[in-house]
């Protein structure tokens, strides 16, 4: 049986990539061989395994080059189309304050897209006039950050250091530079990443079965609930 790939539109609109045609991005649903990879997921290997998994189901772009937002969108698409749009979750109702169990509808999740004028690298100016060139965090970067954290080190500055484009500095030099920055300047870098976040927002509506209160909640991005057989 041949694989059935269909077109998919990513939240980045492929504006974060070089020489990637958004009309050539295609995806297929999971097969048994993909479920076998999913069954081997652990907290330690989840992002590395997902690079392999996404490589199997996606055409038109390398999985490790995906932005974090696009990668999450692909995971959500697979959860809906390969399994079920229902997402079981317990929540404390804002109306009656009772803990309730609901079946959230993943199809309600909206995705934030990058603006049409987005481009990278993007230049940001620090308080002393120094200009930094920044890029998006990728799935490969997330794997690298996990490897860094596995050595007992905080990945906070390391993660931002990876997104600084400067051929004259290696990753350690970039980290030392960030260590010496004022919090104000570090916030400028962090704000650029926050302002350009894209992908699923994971917010859905719910109705309390006890008091009929209708509210909103943000679903946790848990792989065990996204990628599980549900009726």
Structure, briefly:
This protein has 231 residues and is of the alpha+beta class. It folds into two domains: 6-112 and 199-226, no CATH class; 122-195, no CATH class.
Number of helices: 8
Distance between the termini: 26 Å
Rg, Cα atoms, Å: 20 Å
Count the beta strands: 11
Percent helix among the residues? 25-40%
- Beta strand %: 15-25%
Q: Please, could you describe this protein's structure?
A:
It is a single chain. This protein has 231 residues and is of the alpha+beta class. The chain folds into 2 domains: 6-112 and 199-226, no CATH class; 122-195, no CATH class. 35% of the residues lie in helices and 18% in strands. The chain contains 8 helices and 11 strands. The protein has helices at residues 32-38, 46-57, 68-83, 139-149, 156-162, 171-180, 183-195, 223-226, and strands at 6-7, 26-27, 58-59, 86-92, 99-105, 111-112, 122-125, 131-134, 199-200, 203-207, 214-218. The strands form 5 sheets. Strands 1-2-3 form a 3-stranded antiparallel β-sheet. The chain has a two-stranded antiparallel sheet with strand order 4-5. Strands 6-9 form a two-stranded antiparallel sheet. Helix 5 (156-162) crosses helix 6 (171-180). The radius of gyration is 20 Å and the shape is globular. The protein starts with 5 loop residues before the first strand and ends in a 5-residue tail after the last helix.
